[in-house]
Amino acid sequence: MKKYYNIGVDLGGTNIAIGITDENYKILVKGSVPTLAKRGGEAITADMAALAEKLCGEIGISFSDISSAGIAAPGTVNPETKIIEYSNNIKFLNFPIADEFSSRTGIPKDKIAVGNDANLAALGEYVAGAAKGSHSAVMITLGTGVGGGVITDGKILTGHKFGGAELGHTVIEYGGRQCTCGRRGCFEAYCSATALVAMTREKFEQTSGTLMHKMCGGDISKVGGKTAFAAMKNGDAAGAEVVDKYIGYLACGIANLINIFQPETFLIGGGVCNEGDNLLKPLMKLIEPQVYGSLKTTVAIAMLGNDAGIIGAAAASAAE
């Protein structure tokens, strides 16, 4: 019986992560190299192909054994033309990444899928992670920004011109904090890991002698995404105030999305989720009263971590 091997590429602004999966989306081997994002697309794609070839060699196969390949990329990605139309993080503009990857690997273009990274991370969780077995799922990722993906019956909601599911750019505070997208009050401006750091630093500046100050040696530049939660867990009132405020905004944004999509499963990913029950338990208490009708959605923490994009890309390619 022929074995199926799928390549999943998660192209990020910092690293290129690649894995080779079997037909059940189990990662057989994986690796990463720096993206060096200021380079042109051709150089980046050359590194993608070189890493993929190296990983194939590690499990004793070649590109001719690959059934399909998928590429998860940031920005506006057209899955039909397989072109990255725009990405501000890697400075792609109408870059034909599937053509380029095909020419370097010999994998036919019609066996290569290309999609937005947040969408494919959601797909990864849907086929092999915390949403496996669900009819529908919504996932947000709390990182530098707030990424999102919406999956129904295995299909990704992409919207007109493939720019849909920008869940981080729904407004939860009219006229509020400036967002990088140009609007004010976006979900992303309040609930990204970047926003959590900004809130913590604001409280740091407004107070003195708190546990947060002691933890950071009085140096505001040492305040990070874990600072407020760590201080809160050790009884610090200032840290608890930041955490409560952050979770309040997060609950508002999630309740909005549950009310819009009514998914069977709602997943939260990103580094902030490492807080586990310290995040999820108080969050659920605030979400439930805000959801229209009774809560029928399971809210959980994503389980695949950094592998979600790899698995989602492989899954998208298997559907080609």
Explain what the structure shows.
This protein has 320 residues and is of the alpha/beta class. The chain contains ten helices and 13 strands. The strands form three sheets. A five-stranded mixed β-sheet has the order 3-2-1-4-8. A five-stranded mixed β-sheet has the order 11-10-9-12-13, with helices on both faces. Strand 1 and strand 2 form a beta hairpin.
The number of helical elements comes to: 10
**Sequence of strands across the biggest β-sheet:** 3-2-1-4-8
Question: Strand count, sense and closure of the main sheet?
Answer: 5 strands, mixed
Query: Whole-Å distance between the termini?
Result: 21 Å
Helix content: 25-40%
Number of strands: 13
How confident is the prediction overall: mean pLDDT?
94
Q: How much is the radius of gyration in Å?
A: 20 Å
- General form: globular
User: Given the helix and strand composition, which structural class is it?
Assistant: alpha/beta
Poorly predicted parts: none
- Secondary-structure element pattern, one letter each: EEEHEEEEHEHEEEHHHHHEHEH
Strand content: 15-25%
